[in-house]
Specification:
The relative contact order is 0.14. A hairpin with a 2-residue loop joins strand 12 and strand 13 (about 280-285). The longest helix has 24 residues, at about 65-85. The N and C termini lie far apart (about 55 Å). This protein folds into two domains: about 10-260, 3-Layer(aba) Sandwich (Rossmann fold); about 270-465, Molybdenum Cofactor Biosythetic Enzyme, Chain A. Mean pLDDT is about 90; it is low at about 1-10. It is of the alpha/beta class and about 475 residues long. It contains 15 helices and 20 strands. It has a 15-stranded mixed β-sheet with strand order 9-10-5-11-4-1-3-2-18-19-20-17-14-16-15, with helices on both faces. Strands 6-7-8 form a three-stranded antiparallel β-sheet, with no helix packed on it. The chain is globular.
């Protein structure tokens, strides 16, 4: 579908296909879709926000299944975008494939599918900087708090491991050599800080869906890129290059805010924490889910469980794994599930915050598909347990992308949620609307790879007391 001339005003719709549900970490006031049927897409495109997130959750899937899902979303999106433009609800659109700022995920698979279905594009801009989380790219090297990201535990992920932080080399590694490092273009921080005509000319020369690794170490650098891109999407940048350019983005969250140019979020942390549900004058209790098993999540969980009013309820991963591999797994798992539900209810009845977590460390699996299946089974189990308690909860905190998606889509059975903003940098609070008299349920979505050792405890203190830590 050819993309029409794009107005730079508010009728530009930025469609973000998010590979997990925590990528709206820098924005607010927009819908996050968990389904992509025609009715849900139409509602999302009619929303006044310039942003529309579609939570694809592809990071939880095997490559073939991820490609199939992205293709399905694009094929549903294509007529929905056309109808929205004909109806005058949007004046144009661009697409962002939102991926992990620590470089885990199905790249280049997902952007290649998007190019096939919604392209062709002149270039795919690779912009993994997530400034709010300490992820920067300087001279083509992606860093986490100043350290090359391939030296972090995230690079040893059981499904998405990699050996280099130099983005052109990373592209070659992730494409198994199909996209050699020498074919990857680059836009450095000096060029971004200079901005203006040189940056416009560079972007205008791109063609054939070339991959471009883009630096990003400041808000100003990303703003310069966003401004140049939007200019070229209207014109070619000069009278001799009048054809509007088409860009696809593989990016983390910071570029999305730069492209959208949203004002500051209206709710402060106090205001977001104040969305906690009440029954009469009494605040309802909370529940914390921790599915992520990266070392940072382990340390955050340990700090949270040191709080006297937080009580851990552990899901034994090895036991669940044995049940799944044995006869009648559904029947045996249902019995265990009832026991865990009673334990959670007892903790709540005692006036404490239950913290439901999977046993720590990565399970031993024979192959990647078994690992994915186990991860999904655990996430769905946690989602069912949380959903059973949801009518009596004041808030939920969900740590880990797969866990959070299962909670929203399968446990709470939602089509979409409304993003309110960030309680802390990178921690998005959404309102889910199950049928209760107490109003929508606030859910804090907490990426597995974000924050320091005390961030989970700090987020819980905000939600439970409406004030920050002392």
């Amino acid at each position: 579908m050819a993309q029409a001339t794009i107005d730079t005003g508010p009728d530009l719709k930025i469609v973000v296909i998010d590979d997990d549900p925590t990528g709206s970490q820098t924005v607010h006031g927009c819908p996050l879709l968990l389904r992509w049927d025609a009715e849900t897409l139409a509602a999302g495109l009619a929303h006044p926000s310039p942003l529309l997130f579609v939570l694809a959750n592809t990071r939880a899937l095997a490559p073939a299944a991820a490609a199939k899902r992205v293709r399905e979303i694009c094929r549903a999106m294509r007529p929905a975008l056309g109808q929205a433009m004909v109806a005058g609800r949007i004046g144009g659109w661009l697409v962002v494939s939102r991926g992990d700022s620590t470089l885990r995920g199905h790249f280049p698979l997902e952007v290649e599918v998007i190019n096939e279905e919604l392209g062709p594009f002149d270039a795919t801009l690779l912009v993994p900087a997530f400034l709010e989380g300490g992820r920067t790219t300087v001279d083509g090297v992606h860093r986490l708090h100043g350290r090359p990201v391939h030296e972090s535990p995230f690079a040893r992920d059981g499904l998405f491991a990699y050996a280099t932080s130099h983005l052109p080399d990373w592209v070659e590694e992730k494409s198994a050599g199909r996209l050699p490092a020498t074919a990857v273009d680059g836009i450095g921080w000096r060029e971004l800080e200079q901005g203006g005509s040189p940056l416009l000319r560079h972007l205008a020369r791109l063609q054939g869906n070339v991959c471009v690794a883009v630096d990003g170490a400041s808000v100003q650098q990303l703003a310069a890129l966003a401004a140049a891109v939007r200019t070229l999407m209207v014109t070619g940048g000069t009278p001799l290059e009048a054809r509007p350019r088409r860009f696809l983005f593989q990016s983390a969250a910071s570029l999305i805010q730069a492209l959208a140019g949203l004002p500051p979020q209206p709710l402060t942390p106090e205001g977001l924490a104040g969305l906690r549900r009440r029954r009469g004058d009494d605040p309802l209790p909370g529940l914390v889910l921790v599915g992520s098993h990266v070392p940072l999540a382990d340390r955050q969980l340990e700090r949270l469980l040191a709080e006297p009013t937080c009580v851990g309820v552990e899901l034994d991963v090895a036991k669940v794994q044995r049940l799944l591999e044995g006869p009648e797994p559904a029947l045996l798992l249902a019995s265990l599930e009832q026991a865990w539900r009673r334990r959670l209810a007892d903790v709540l009845a005692g006036g404490h915050t239950p913290v439901l977590f999977t046993s720590r460390g990565e399970a031993r699996c024979r192959h990647a598909e078994e690992r994915r299946a186990l991860g999904l089974a655990l996430a769905e189990l946690m989602a069912r347990l949380a959903a059973a308690l949801a009518p009596g909860l004041g808030y939920l905190i969900s740590k880990g992308g797969i866990t959070t998606h299962a909670l929203l889509a399968d446990g709470l059975e939602l089509d979409l949620v409304e993003l309110q903003g960030q309680l802390l940098p990178g921690l998005s609070l959404v309102l889910a609307a199950p049928e209760t008299h107490e109003g929508p349920l606030p859910v804090l979505t907490f990426p597995g790879n974000l924050g320091d050792d005390g961030t989970l405890r700090e987020a819980w203190r905000w939600m439970d007391t409406q004030v920050g830590p002392p």
